[in-house]
Design brief:
single chain; 301 residues; alpha+beta; 6-stranded antiparallel β-sheet; 4-stranded antiparallel β-sheet; 10 strands; globular
Length: 301
C-alpha cells in the first residue's frame, strides 16, 4: 500500500466513504469512514466564513490546500483546527486505508456566540485576534475519543439522528476547549522537560498494553523511573485526567467496540478489559454509558 503523500495525486473521489449531517443552518458534521484497502480522496468547498475542526479517530489522513502545495497530515488521536478569514479553505482530504476522520464545520459568527463570555480564554476569539487566521494541532483526549466513536458508530432511528448529532457536536466542542486539557506550558514547567513528557507517554502505553492487569501507580512510577507525585501531576497535565480515570475510559471504549462486533459475549469482553466477574463489568459499563452491555448489544440489532 502506498503512503498517503505518494498516492495523493491519484484521482479518487470517495463518495462511498463520506456522510454529511446538518446540525443546524451552516453547522455540519462530516464523516469519512474508509474501510477499503486503498487511500480515498474527497473534496468539499468551504468558505472563509467557516472554522474547521478535523479529528482522526483511527488510522491517518492528510489535508491539502492551495492545489496540493500545502499539506497537513493528521495522525490517529490527533486533531486540527483551521480558520482563515482572508481566503476560502476548501477541504481536500486523503483518508488512508482503514481510517476514520470526522470533521466539524460551523460559521465563525456562530462559533463566537458559543464563547462570548470566554473570549479571553480562547486566544483567537479575542478582539485583537478574531480577524486573523488560526491553526492548531492537538491531542484527542479519552473523553473526546468516546464522543467521536459514538458519532462514527451509532444505531439510531432516522427521526432522532439530528438531535443526537447536535448534542454530540456541542459535547465535542466543549471537551475540545476544556480548560483542564488546554495545557499552559508556562504554568506547567514540568512539561518543559522532554524526558519527563516521554516518561508520561510511556506510562500511557504501559497501562493500555496491560489494561487487563494494570500495574499499581507505584509500580508504574517505578517502571518509568519517575516519582509517584510527578507521574500523577504529569499525567493529569498532559492527558487531562488521572491515570486510572483515563484507563477506565479507554477500557470502556474498547469494551463497547468489542461488543459492537458481535464476536464476543459479555463475559468474554469483561475478561478482555480486566474484569474477573461479569457483574463488576456490567456495573462499570453502565456507569460509563448509562446502559448495560446486553441492552447496548440489543440496541445494535
Amino acid at each position: 500500500m502506498k503512503p498517503i503523500d505518494e498516492a495523493i495525486s491519484e484521482k479518487n473521489i470517495a463518495e462511498g466513504i463520506y456522510k454529511e449531517t446538518k446540525i443546524e443552518d451552516g453547522f455540519f458534521i462530516l464523516k469519512f469512514n474508509n474501510e477499503s484497502s486503498d487511500i480515498q480522496l474527497y473534496k468539499r468547498e468551504v468558505s472563509s466564513d467557516y472554522i474547521q475542526f478535523h479529528f482522526c479517530v483511527k488510522g491517518s489522513g492528510s489535508f491539502s490546500f492551495n492545489n496540493g502545495n500545502y499539506r497537513l497530515p493528521v495522525a490517529e488521536d490527533a486533531s486540527l483546527l483551521l480558520y482563515n478569514p482572508e481566503r476560502d479553505l476548501p477541504i481536500e482530504v486523503a483518508v488512508a486505508a482503514h481510517s476514520w476522520v470526522l470533521s466539524v464545520l460551523l460559521p465563525i459568527k456562530k462559533f463566537h456566540t458559543l464563547f462570548s463570555s470566554e473570549a479571553n480564554y480562547i486566544t483567537f476569539l479575542s478582539d485583537e485576534n478574531k480577524g486573523r487566521k488560526y491553526y492548531k494541532d492537538a491531542h484527542i483526549s479519552p473523553s473526546m475519543a468516546i464522543v467521536l466513536n459514538q458519532l462514527m458508530n451509532y444505531n439510531l432511528h432516522p427521526s432522532i439522528k439530528q438531535l443526537y448529532f447536535k448534542g454530540k457536536a456541542y459535547e465535542l466542542l466543549s471537551l475540545y476547549f476544556n480548560r483542564e486539557e488546554d495545557v499552559d506550558v508556562e504554568q506547567c514547567p514540568f512539561l518543559v522537560d522532554e524526558a519527563n513528557v516521554s516518561k508520561i507517554k510511556k506510562a500511557k502505553e504501559i497501562i493500555i498494553a496491560r489494561m487487563a492487569e494494570p500495574p499499581t501507580l507505584q509500580q508504574l512510577a517505578d517502571e518509568i523511573q519517575l516519582p509517584l507525585n510527578k507521574l500523577k501531576e504529569g499525567f493529569k497535565q498532559i492527558y487531562g485526567d488521572s491515570v486510572f480515570s483515563f484507563l477506565f475510559d479507554y477500557k470502556m471504549e474498547v469494551a463497547r467496540q468489542l461488543l459492537a462486533t458481535g464476536a464476543h459475549n459479555v463475559n468474554e469482553v469483561g475478561l478482555k478489559v480486566g474484569y474477573s466477574t461479569a457483574s463488576h463489568f456490567i456495573a462499570a459499563f453502565k456507569k460509563k454509558f448509562g446502559t448495560t452491555p446486553k441492552k447496548f448489544v440489543m440496541g445494535l440489532s
